[in-house]
Amino acid sequence: MTPLNETHDPNLKSWVDSAQDSEFPVQNLPFGVFSPSSAEPRIGVAIGDRILDAREWAKNADLSETIKAALSRPTLNGFMSLGQESWSMVRLAISRALRQDGDRSAPLYKASDCTMHLPADIGDYTDFYASIYHATNVGALFRPDNPLLPNYKHIPIAYHGRASSVVPSGTPIKRPKGQTKADDAESPTYGPSRVLDYELEIGVFIGPGNQLGEPIDASQAEQQLFGLCLLNDWSARDLQKWEYQPLGPFLAKNFASTISPWIVTTEALAPFRCDPFQRPEGDPQPLSYLLPAGSGFDIHLEAQIAQADTEPMTLCRSNSKWLYWTIAQMIAHHTSNGCNLKPGDLIGTGTISGPDIESLGSLLELTRGGKQPFQLPNGESRRFLEDGDRIVLRARCERQGFASIGFGECSGEIVGA
Amino acid sequence: MTPLNETHDPNLKSWVDSAQDSEFPVQNLPFGVFSPSSAEPRIGVAIGDRILDAREWAKNADLSETIKAALSRPTLNGFMSLGQESWSMVRLAISRALRQDGDRSAPLYKASDCTMHLPADIGDYTDFYASIYHATNVGALFRPDNPLLPNYKHIPIAYHGRASSVVPSGTPIKRPKGQTKADDAESPTYGPSRVLDYELEIGVFIGPGNQLGEPIDASQAEQQLFGLCLLNDWSARDLQKWEYQPLGPFLAKNFASTISPWIVTTEALAPFRCDPFQRPEGDPQPLSYLLPAGSGFDIHLEAQIAQADTEPMTLCRSNSKWLYWTIAQMIAHHTSNGCNLKPGDLIGTGTISGPDIESLGSLLELTRGGKQPFQLPNGESRRFLEDGDRIVLRARCERQGFASIGFGECSGEIVGA
After folding, report:
1. ipTM score of complex
2. Is A8 a catalytic residue?
3. Across the interface, which of A160, A190, A251 has its CB nearest the CB of B339?
4. Over the Cα atoms of chain A, what is R_g?
5. pTM tops 0.90, yes or no
6. Which tens digits make up the pLDDT trace of A7-23?
């Protein structure tokens, strides 16, 4: 776990004025890949409403040739592979360059003039199911008599998602078509999904990874965390219901998954670590390969819905501290059979719901499977997503004595099939 | 569908003597990626016991710069992206260069001096479940009352596998550890899998692919088929049983999947196409987005088991014509929701079992879940795989009036955890 250091000092201010009180103050410094106007993609760091061109900046920075080469590539995979020591070194140097007493020579672009891309070439994408509140809520809808399966409290349940259809925030989401079967129908039909949902998740970008056949010990798992982003695992519930037995969700999920383009590094998140989820009395202790659990993260999450003519409306406020399994446990479990993780692999936490009605991270839960519609500011009613609906995920970390940091926006609008 | 042409002429012979009557006659010409001794990986074509260095050969061939550039890369992804016309053009040129009347200048290496690599950088790996015999046999073990679920005859069921752990033939397979729970145990334990199995499958390498949001029509799906290989989807049945609900297999499968290194092109397979599986009377017709079904493939498959001190013993003889869904239907279904396929993506058919006791493509089926052990030539008994067991998959196409072609070997030996 990265210790607190000078980059976390709450008194630091940047010579980029917009940084102060923004989601991206000098204490944050998230990494991403951007294009200034129509130029080629390159690695950048967000500061206020600007983006530091990390490739250009690195040319004159006091860094090793290995680091400079990694920062000159069009994706973050190479930099992710270098590990915590290199990440820290670069963060410190960028922090110093952007502080009020920095030499103000860092090459910046206005973020609003830039296009954001996927931060990495995602080799594999795995999605967990780590919120026990979500698992219980969803389980109750699909299997009323048996909401939480017997393995849930022993195994960090997960499945493989689709890497090719992970898209950056802002990409329109075409309503998927697929096979569905009404309970009272004799046969299925093929057509646009009518039960389209979002899922509020956090995405984890993996650092150095491991060799095939060499599990990562739980005590070493946190060293694999390059950083976190927001993830919307769009879900077609009607497709899911008909297809998911016996091998799990497939077309219900793989038409698109949206991520926020800025990766907030684990080091930036150091002040916002918290104890892992407190298991209720009577719950089994994790098997030893899942210990130590590592820390949780206290990240405030919010999902909003908006249409062209309406103000955004909050659907849910949740927090990653509600996850039953820590990210370190997910990594230890994922590799416990020898499965190899690679730099730039993406892991989703699964929908993060909390214990309250206000903290339900999907419409499936909020509307009780569509039985309890809610009203939008424009008077329309919603059970699931309609064309023109835009879902915006946001995240923010706050702690007394530290600068607040945000994740930026993870947004996508549904367009007709 | 590629028509028959001069490259399929059974009377063609190669000036490479070993080609005649081998798995790789001049009518086959499968593509792969190899290294001569310790040189860097490059694209090659198998001919008898030799490998044509396609990169070197292309330099002097009458081909476009685009094709030459694709053949000069260390993976087949670029060549796969070019499509059927380019694939055919290269096949024809290589066929002419290797025929008896060719100029014998093609740069060849002895295959036994070379190392084979993965043929492509596999972006995503999807595994289907397309043999109704396998699905019924396995379903009966996991769900005796309900072997074939109601969706099976309507949906080509599939799930996402792990791309990072796909390995080429010959890679040792480390016995995975994982969580298992005996039926009569109170709690799970973590340790080496005791119920390790193989699965006999065919792998499909995708060509040009599609844009996100743009389904591939069933009538166009065959144009996506670059070629086929053998695939062993190693499975830890004890892990699978405990983890697979509700999101499907995960650690039970993702510790390794072995493929044969030579991709037999769809064009080489043209003489061995056959009618799609004849649905029994009373089975539902596929929905229209899954039609036309395209063709099946008549490929004889065999799985063998061997130990250091024993002759290989045949476990199973099957045939890809037993698949309930065609490969074209798998592709049409996979993209029917807009999911994008990319060049070099790998699709598995799922275990290919046939209707007979001799055609069961996994030990789970052969030993009825371990209840009926079988005997090896050395007198040992087996329910599932022991350390030191080697599984070899083979495939061969035969048809009157055509040269027989083979797939080479897909092999892996189990080593201790």
Report:
1. 0.97
2. no
3. A251
4. 21
5. yes
6. 999 999 999 999 999 99
